[in-house]
Design brief:
Elements lengths: L8 H7 L11 H14 L10 H7 L1 H5 L8 E2 L12 E2 L1
Parallel strand pairs: 1-2
């Protein structure tokens, strides 16, 4: 049976569920703490960064294939991510 190239938002949300490293502080601080926790292996996913930001701020993660892009949000797929499922 062929596999679907789409993933439901519910499944995507469940796959990336994690406890926030900090309940207080600014969104920028929480994002930074979450990324640090991901680098330490304390969390397995992060879902608040666009592809361009990831490429610019964390180039080694992309070039060394340290991250797996599970899905992309939007109406059209990014040309650089042709095999990554698209969700709305």
């Amino acid at each position: 049976m062929p596999q679907s190239s789409t993933i439901s938002p519910t499944k995507a949300s469940l796959a990336l569920t994690r406890k926030s490293p900090s309940a207080s502080g600014s969104a920028k601080t929480r994002k930074s703490e979450a990324l640090t926790a991901m680098e330490r292996g304390e969390v397995e996913g992060f879902c608040a960064m666009g592809w361009n930001e990831l490429k610019q701020r964390h180039t080694p993660w992309v070039t060394e294939k340290k991250v797996n892009i599970l899905f992309q949000r939007g109406l059209d797929k990014d040309e650089e991510l042709p095999n990554v499922p698209l969700i709305l």
